[in-house]
């Protein structure tokens, strides 16, 4: 009797845990990016609009799926998550100023994540634009990717894929902050 | 359950089977135990470095799984990290925001998985399940912590590292691991103890570095915490400074 009542609960519990992931936490600043921002001597920036481009970026803007797992975008948009990741890094370095005349915005141009065996991949790309007042002083397409050994076990492969995908946002922001043209355009004065 | 799966891939299989065990057999009869490895332990009062004039610091923390940022686990573990840094007494104030002195303390804990560890855990879990939880399974999950500190925006970065582990057992027939200490509170309790020890030890070692107070020191120096095993990742290893007077 105990088995009869417990097993459906166990099966549903395991199934649900594979499908529904906890909401993502806020992005964190990193020491590497803080050091890069300090060394670049850039002026404080404000973060403007980040939107998904056509195709996959729009289709995957609200949520991503890997096997039976689904991860919803924080605040309902992965493009916004890219903006929030950039804002977290700027804020961590004391370089975020909502009143700045320098504004960085972006369009997500490429996004992908899979859990293919034996090697899974994830990609993220965006078109960044930096404006001083209303004048474009920098614009560039940047992209990052990641590959890793994927497991046949869903309970391992799904979180791995989500973690790798989430890590790309930080990597892409690091690419932007390390870009010599961006640093030159955003420099104070 | 998703917290468990997101945080420790190798333990995930055993944890899922543990849930089955608890629900099928009843929590009173379930056999699951959590341990932390003996690589590190809590600092004794006389080991703690005391700083004459603690300064404010901006604390950055990130939990990673196999090198990738794990935002959910970061959120779950951050409170333990903050309370450990506070309890060290090394800083006058701990903030998420930049501080006036520009000091930054970055702590990264990585759930590192050795090749074959996940498959090994799955195999063990399958055996335990096949024997209706009579045959026990033991899985060890490894963690690496790196702590970087800059006393000011222009100060050299100083670093320390440490390694630790959590051991999780399910099943009725198990022998107690000799190189681990049992922890109350299940996996969550083990994570809490692991985090406290893997942060407090290298942080204490970092505070004994001459560069901690902002004085000149070699740039980007990284050493293992005194209690960390020799296998802990490290770069150069200069002569460690001795701790100051013990904390009262």
Distance between the termini of chain A: 76 Å
Portion of residues within helices of chain A: 40-55%
- The count of domains of chain A is 1
Q: CATH topology of chain A, anyone? A: Double Stranded RNA Binding Domain
- Indicate the mean pLDDT of chain B: 79
Number of strands of chain A: 6
What is the overall shape of chain A?
A: elongated
Give a description of the structure.
The complex is a heterodimer of chains A (189) and B (248). Chain A is of the alpha+beta class and 189 residues long. Chain A has one domain (2-186): Lipoprotein like domain (Double Stranded RNA Binding Domain). Chain A is 42% helix and 30% strand. Chain A contains six helices and six strands; from the N terminus they run ααβαββαβββαα. In chain A, the strands form two sheets. Chain A has a four-stranded mixed β-sheet with strand order 1-4-5-6. Chain A has a two-stranded antiparallel sheet with strand order 2-3. Chain A is elongated. The model of chain A is unreliable at 1-18 (pLDDT under 50). Chain B has 248 residues and is of the alpha/beta class. Chain B has one domain. Chain B is 31% helix and 27% strand. Chain B has five helices and nine strands, in the order ααβββαββαβββαβ. Chain B has helices at 2-7, 9-25, 71-88, 117-130, 186-207, and strands at 32-37, 55-65, 68-69, 91-95, 104-112, 137-150, 158-170, 180-183, 221-224. In chain B, strands 1, 2, 3, 4, 5, 6, 7, 8 and 9 form a nine-stranded mixed β-sheet that branches. In chain B, α2 runs parallel beside α4 (117-130) and α3 (71-88) packs across α5. The longest helix of chain B is centred in the last third of the chain and has 22 residues, at 186-207. Chain B is elongated, with a radius of gyration of 19 Å. The N and C termini of chain B lie far apart (42 Å). Classes of the chains: A alpha+beta (189), B alpha/beta (248). Chain A binds chain B through residues 2-3, 6-7, 9-10, 13-14, 17, 20-22, 24-31, 34-35, 38, 91-94, 146, 148, 151, 153, 155-156, 159-160, 162-164, 166-167, 170, and chain B through 1-3, 5-6, 9, 12-13, 16, 19-20, 23-24, 26, 58, 60-62, 64-66, 68-72, 74-75, 97-98, 104, 106, 118, 122, 148, 150, 153, 157.
């Amino acid at each position: 009797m105990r088995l009869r009542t417990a097993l459906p609960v166990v099966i549903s519990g395991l199934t649900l845990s594979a499908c529904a992931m906890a909401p993502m936490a806020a992005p964190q600043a990193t020491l590497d990016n803080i050091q890069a921002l300090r060394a670049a001597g850039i002026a404080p920036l404000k973060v403007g609009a980040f939107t998904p481009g056509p195709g996959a970026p729009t289709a995957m803007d609200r949520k991503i799926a890997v096997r039976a797992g689904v991860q919803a975008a924080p605040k309902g948009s992965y493009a916004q998550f890219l903006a929030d990741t950039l804002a977290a890094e700027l804020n961590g370095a004391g370089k975020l100023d909502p009143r700045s005349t320098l504004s960085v915005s972006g369009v997500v141009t490429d996004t992908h994540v899979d859990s293919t065996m034996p090697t899974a991949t994830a990609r993220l790309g965006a078109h960044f634009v930096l404006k001083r007042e209303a004048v474009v002083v920098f614009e560039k397409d940047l992209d990052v990717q990641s590959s890793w050994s994927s497991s046949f076990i869903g309970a391992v492969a799904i979180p791995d894929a989500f973690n790798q995908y989430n890590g790309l946002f930080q990597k892409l922001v690091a690419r932007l902050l390390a870009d010599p043209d961006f640093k030159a355009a955003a420099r104070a004065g | 359950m998703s917290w468990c799966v997101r945080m420790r891939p190798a333990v995930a299989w055993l944890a899922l089977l543990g849930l089955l065990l608890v629900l099928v057999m009843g929590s009173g009869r379930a056999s699951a135990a959590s341990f932390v490895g003996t690589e590190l332990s809590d600092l004794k009062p006389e080991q703690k470095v005391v700083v004459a004039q603690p300064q404010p610091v901006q604390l950055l923390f990130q939990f990673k799984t196999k090198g990738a940022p794990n935002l959910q686990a970061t959120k779950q573990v951050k409170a333990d990290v903050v309370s450990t840094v506070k309890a060290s007494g090394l800083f006058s104030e701990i903030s998420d925001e930049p501080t006036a002195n520009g000091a930054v303390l970055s702590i990264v804990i990585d759930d590192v998985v050795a090749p074959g560890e996940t498959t090994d855990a799955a195999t063990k879990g399958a055996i335990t399940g096949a024997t209706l939880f009579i045959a026990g399974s033991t899985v060890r999950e490894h963690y690496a912590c790196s702590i970087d500190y800059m006393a000011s925006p222009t100060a050299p970065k100083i670093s320390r590292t440490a390694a630790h582990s959590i051991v999780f057992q399910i099943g009725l027939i198990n022998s107690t691991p000799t190189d681990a200490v049992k922890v109350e509170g299940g996996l969550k309790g083990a994570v809490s103890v692991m985090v406290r020890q893997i942060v407090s030890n290298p942080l204490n070692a970092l505070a004994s570095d001459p560069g901690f107070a902002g004085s000149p020191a070699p740039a980007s120096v990284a050493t293992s915490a005194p209690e960390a095993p020799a296998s802990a990742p490290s770069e150069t290893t200069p002569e460690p400074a001795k701790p100051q007077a013990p904390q009262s």
